[in-house]
Structure formats: C-alpha cells, structure tokens
Design goal:
alpha+beta, two-stranded antiparallel ribbon
Length: 319
C-alpha cells in the first residue's frame, strides 16, 4: 500500500514537471513581445475606461496609439488636448489640438410646451419606452424623460430637471465622452464644440415633421420655416427635412437667427447679455434696406449704361 502511494506521488510529480516544461517551452516559442510604450501611454491616460475614444478602454486606446503610424483619428475626449500632448510626446508624433466639446441636448419640449397624450406604466427606461411606442407626447422625436443618459454618464454631468422633464448638462463636469449620446434612443444629444468662451447657438429641436404638425405637438418646435437660413449671412444654417441645423464651424454668434426664430427653437448659450431681439431685428432691417438701395443703384447704373450704349449705337447708325 505504501509503495503504491509513493509511486503515485512520484508519477504525478514527474508528470507535473514534464507538463510545466512543455508549457514553458510553448510560452517561449509563442511569446509575443509587447511594446513597453503601451504601459507608458496607459500611465498618462485618465483611467476612466469610458469608451468615449471608440476603444474598449484606456489600455486598448494605448495599444492602438502605439501601433498606429500617427494619431490621426485617435483622441481621448476625457483627457483632452493635455493628455494627447503627453501621448504624442511619448510616441514622437504630432497631434492637432481639438476644440473642447460638450454634450448638448437638442430638445426643448418642456412639460408646458409638449402636452402629455399618453401615460406610460412600464419599465422606466428610454430604451424600453422607445421600443414600445413613440412616447408620452405627440412629438415622436423628443426626449422620453426616463434618464438613460443620466445613468450612462460616469462623471455626474447629467441630471433630470423635474420642472421641464428634460436632462440638464453640467458643462464643468462633462468630458464629452459620448456615453449619453449612445444611450439616447431618440438621438437628441450630440457633442458640439463649446465655442469661444462657451458661447454657441443651437437648434433645440429634432422634429422633422412639417411645420403645422410639429407646432401642434410642441410649442417650442422648429417648424422649418427657413427664416433663420435666409437671415444668416455666414451660410451657417441649413434646413433639411423641415429641420434647421447650425454648423458650429461657420456660426459667427451674431444671434440674428435666434432673434428671428418664430418659435424660440434656437437657443443662445452662455452669452454674457440677454438677447435684445428688437435691436437685432432693427440691425437686420437696416442691412436689408442698404442692400436694397445698393441693388437699386446698381440696377439704375446698369440701365443708364445700357441707355448710353443704345444711344451710341443710334449715332453710329445715322453716320
């Protein structure tokens, strides 16, 4: 009995040693050398692992940055330009600074502006509600109000306003990671440049219905009238599928679009002074008047020139 136990232990020990040796040789044979710069890059990352960069986490981001020929298309929204400068220094790359971004809620359908037509009594998430029907109001494009975006934010930058039923973004906490954008089934949240000193103009509506239908569903809806597009002298506004959109790269923050919008769908954010609509409309009227006078003068000059040419032609004919 004793010999059997001893032999069993000996065989198991030898077998274990042999297997360990095989594993060691296999590991040596198929060992993948990892670039030490990956660890260096990961150390300067914020460690949020939010996925806002498009990768699974900070480690995956670091691997992609090290294995990429440049940093084009690779950016950490949480760390921003400071972190990217450190990453570029480690890898010997150049990186272009990006304008800081912030999450923007493109819905202003408050409880007063958007009357409730349905009562939802199911699981309180926007994803479930959106899968079941269009929402509690007649607007099929607006915020559903269950706060999926708030739950998705890892930085406490979003909260639901009980008075309006809409999410509110704390710009000081927002890292532009994009988690709220992905969480919203209605796609009413987008990342936009913060703008100079945080100022920007935004169309706070996503309703693509025709004007009367959109207006009936929400008093604050964009009705696609095109007044803002016609007024803008910087070609910053386009109206497509009954909805206006402001290009932040072209917008000069003149606030003229905000002044002429008949429903108040265009919002100016973080401007130091309240909008004086009358003063802005007077400025627009004066500009249009001068443009009309200039066009009239040009037309008269052209007509006078045509008359002189005709008169000269007559004299040549008489000769």
């Amino acid at each position: 009995m004793t010999n059997t136990v001893i032999w069993t232990i000996a065989i198991i020990t030898v077998l274990g040693l042999l297997l360990a040796l095989v594993l060691y040789l296999v590991a040596k044979k198929f060992k993948v050398e990892e670039d030490p710069r990956i660890d260096e890059v990961e150390k300067v990352m914020p460690g949020a692992n939010c996925g806002g960069c498009g990768f699974a986490g900070c480690r995956a981001f670091s691997e992609a940055a090290v294995n990429s020929p440049d940093l084009e298309g690779i950016f950490c929204p949480v760390g921003g330009n400071d972190v990217m400068a450190k990453v570029a220094s480690i890898l010997g790359f150049e990186v272009k600074a990006k304008a800081p971004q912030v999450a923007v809620v493109r819905c202003n359908g408050t409880c007063e502006a958007r009357p409730r037509v349905n009562e939802y009594d199911g699981f309180a998430t926007c994803a479930v509600k959106a899968a079941l029907y269009t929402g509690d109001t007649a607007c099929a494009y607006g915020c559903l109000g269950c706060g999926d975006c708030v739950a998705a934010c890892q930085f406490g930058a979003l909260s639901m306003d009980p008075a309006t039923g809409l999410p509110v973004v704390d710009e000081e906490k927002c890292t532009a990671c994009g988690a709220c954008v992905k969480a919203c089934p209605k796609r009413i949240i987008e990342l936009r440049p913060k703008g100079p000193r945080g100022m920007r103009e935004v169309v706070s509506c996503m309703n693509k219905d025709k004007g009367p239908v959109a207006k009936k569903a929400c008093a604050n809806a964009c009705i696609g009238c095109g007044l803002c597009e016609k007024t803008c002298t910087h070609a910053a506004i386009t109206v497509e599928v009954n909805l206006a959109y402001i290009d932040p790269d072209k917008c000069k923050l003149c606030r003229e679009c905000e002044a002429v919008c008949p429903t108040g769908a265009i919002h100016g954010v973080n401007f130091p002074k309240p909008l004086d609509k009358d003063a802005v409309k007077a400025r627009i009227a004066e500009r249009k008047k001068k443009a009309a006078e200039a066009a009239k003068a040009a037309a008269e000059a052209k007509a006078a020139e045509a008359a002189l040419i005709a008169e000269a032609a007559k004299e040549d004919a008489h000769e």
